[in-house]
Every structure is written in C-alpha cells, then in structure tokens.
C-alpha cells in the first residue's frame, strides 16, 4: 500500500513511518519545512511539501495514495475553535479523493475526549463539553466519511505516548519538577491516565490502515490507568526530589496555567479490549513507569 501521512516528522510520526516501511508499504509524508523533509528522507519516506492549511497539497497527496494516515494537529492553543476548524477541514479535504473507493483514512484523536471518572471504551461517545472537546469535530468528520465509501477509522491515542525522545505531557512534568524542586500531583494523585509506548502505537496505526473496518474507533492504550501519583513518585526518584501533593488551586501556578492543571488532575482511564480483539493488537513494549525508570526522561537534552 502507498500511504500518505501527515505528522510523519512529529513525535509519534517517525515510529509510524518506520513501522509502515518495515511492513512493506511505501510512504509519502507531508513536510512543511526543509528540516522535516530531511528527517522524512532519512527514514525512507518521500517528502510532500505543504501544510495543513495548504488544501491543494493535502488533496494531491490523498489522490495519489492507496490510504491516508492523518496524525498532524496544530495551531494556536489560545483559539481551540480555530484548531478544531483547521483539523475538520483537513480531514474533509483528505477524505474527498477517497470517496467511493473503500480506501482507508485513519485519523488521530485522543482518549482525553472521553468522559471523566470511568473507564472509557471504544464505543463510548466523546464528551462534547470535556477537556479535549476540540478533538470531537475531527472524529465526526472522519466517521461521517464511512457513509461515503471511505474506510474511515479513528485512533484515540492514550494520554501519554511514551518512549525515547518523548516531548509530551510527561517531560513537561519532569521539567516542572526540575524548576520547582518538587514532583507534584494534584490532590491524592489517584487520578488515572492511560499509557502506550510509541512503538506499540505505531503497530496499531499500521494494523488500522491494513484491516480496520469502516467506522471503527480504536484505542491506542496499553495500560488502562496509571495513577499520576505513581508517575510523580517515579519522577521524584529519577531526579532525587520529593513527590508531594498540590491542591487544585495551587496546581494552576505550579503547572503554569489552568489547562495544564486540569490535564494533570484528569481521571480518564480507558480500555482497548475491543481494539485488541478486532485487530489482534498486542502491546509488548515497556510500561510508562519502566520507561521512567530505565529510559531517557532524565538524561535527554532539556528543551
């Protein structure tokens, strides 16, 4: 299969591109800069110059492909409505050339879209008033294409996709602990995050492209719920700092802004039971705490 990929030079993208190539597929990937293009060439992919706002470029990439994987997401986080609009427009543009063909379009979302406080499953509807409501429009735009002859699939990634070179939520916790001298969790720290290693997520994306049925929602989740207290304690051990509780009000100052305080207090465990059964996906790489103990979270160059 010849796959057109957006987000191929981001955090998870290189692992996905490598997994697709190792699986015998060819990859053309969107590149918005010379640096991104060079990184993609080094992986073995063909760069396709453009951006999420260059709709002609997106359309051309999709038209020439046997399948499309959309991982890119960006914009100004102070304008979430505009980010949602850009993502929805990009998905509709990528899906247009695939209509009536049965070709796959796999779109990325996150388990943060799910309702808080209970284990979320693949069949659960997203919370339209929740923390990640800005991702809901993209999910719907993708799944709507299933009725128009596209093998449309949504992959909700775990809150933390960990592994070497991570620059997501967990490294931000590490940086905050270094800056403040304490590895903090909110309240009792019993709130839970799902987690998955980047390499296992890459396998899931490949399987989704190869065989997920139209209209599927999949969960890229290995561990259903890792408590934030256990994450904070592992960071404290790694840095030689105390782990301690902060109140929700204190969290706003400690973590830098109200949104991040909500993220680190969010209780959003998720299941991937249906995904595993449907695709035969079986994560096998290190857990989040194993990565914090033996990985590069405390030795990688600081941004």
Any chance you could write out the topology, listing elements then pairs?
Layout: E1 2-6, H1 13-22, E2 26-31, H2 34-43, E3 46-49, H3 55-63, E4 67-70, H4 80-95, E5 104-110, H5 136-144, E6 151-157, E7 160-162, H6 169-180, E8 183-186, E9 192-197, H7 198-211, E10 216-220, E11 223-227, H8 228-239, E12 243-246, H9 248-255, H10 258-265, H11 273-279, H12 288-294
Parallel strand pairs: 1-2, 1-4, 2-3, 4-5, 5-6, 6-10, 7-9, 8-12
Antiparallel strand pairs: 9-11
Helix pairs in contact: 1-7, 3-4, 4-5, 6-8, 8-12, 9-10
Describe, in plain words, how this protein is organized in 3D:
The chain is an alpha/beta fold. 40% of the residues lie in helices and 20% in strands. The protein contains 12 helices and 12 strands. The protein has helices at residues 13-22, 34-43, 55-63, 80-95, 136-144, 169-180, 198-211, 228-239, 248-255, 258-265, 273-279, 288-294, and strands spanning 2-6, 26-31, 46-49, 67-70, 104-110, 151-157, 160-162, 183-186, 192-197, 216-220, 223-227, 243-246. A 7-stranded parallel β-sheet has the order 3-2-1-4-5-6-10, with helices on both faces. It has a 3-stranded mixed β-sheet with strand order 7-9-11. A two-stranded parallel sheet has the order 8-12. The chain is globular, with a radius of gyration of 19 Å. The model has no long low-confidence stretch (mean pLDDT 96).
Quick structural summary:
By secondary structure, this protein is of the alpha/beta class.
Strand content: 15-25%
**Helix count, per DSSP?**
12
- Rg measurement, Å: 19 Å
Tell me about the largest β-sheet: 7 strands, parallel
Derived structural class? alpha/beta
Helix content: 40-55%
Order of helices and strands: EHEHEHEHEHEEHEEHEEHEHHHH
Uncertain runs are none
Number of strands: 12
Taking the alpha carbons of the first and last residues, their distance comes to: 37 Å
**Adjacency order of strands in the biggest sheet:** 3-2-1-4-5-6-10
In oligomeric terms, what are we looking at? single chain
Instruction: Name the overall outline.
Output: globular
- Overall pLDDT score: 96
């Amino acid at each position: 299969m010849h796959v057109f990929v957006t987000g191929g030079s981001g955090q998870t993208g290189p692992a996905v591109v490598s997994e697709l190539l190792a699986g015998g597929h060819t990859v053309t990937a969107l590149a918005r800069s010379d640096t991104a293009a060079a990184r993609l060439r080094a992986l073995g992919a063909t760069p396709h110059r453009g951006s999420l706002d260059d709709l002609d470029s997106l359309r051309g990439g999709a038209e020439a492909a046997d399948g499309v994987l959309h991982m890119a997401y960006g914009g100004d986080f102070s304008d979430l409505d505009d980010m949602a609009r850009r993502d929805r427009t990009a998905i509709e543009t990528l899906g247009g050339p695939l209509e009536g063909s049965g070709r796959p379009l796999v779109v990325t979302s996150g388990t943060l879209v799910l309702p808080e406080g209970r284990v979320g499953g693949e069949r659960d509807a997203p919370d339209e008033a929740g923390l990640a409501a800005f991702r809901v429009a993209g999910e719907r735009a993708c799944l709507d294409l299933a009725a128009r002859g596209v093998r449309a699939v949504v992959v909700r990634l775990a809150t933390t996709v960990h592994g070497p070179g991570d620059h997501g939520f967990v490294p931000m916790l590490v940086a905050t602990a270094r800056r403040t001298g304490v590895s903090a969790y909110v309240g009792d720290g019993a709130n839970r995050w799902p987690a998955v290693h980047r390499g296992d997520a890459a396998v899931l994306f490949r399987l989704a492209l190869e065989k997920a049925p139209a209209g599927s929602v999949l969960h890229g989740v290995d561990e259903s719920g890792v408590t934030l207290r256990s994450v904070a304690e592992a960071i404290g051990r790694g840095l030689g700092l105390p782990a301690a509780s902060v109140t929700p009000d204190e969290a706003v100052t400690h973590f830098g802004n109200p949104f991040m305080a909500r993220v680190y207090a969010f209780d959003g465990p998720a299941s991937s039971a249906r995904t595993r059964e449907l695709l035969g996906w079986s994560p096998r790489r290190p857990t989040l705490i194993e990565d914090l103990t033996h990985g590069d979270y405390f030795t990688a160059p600081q941004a």
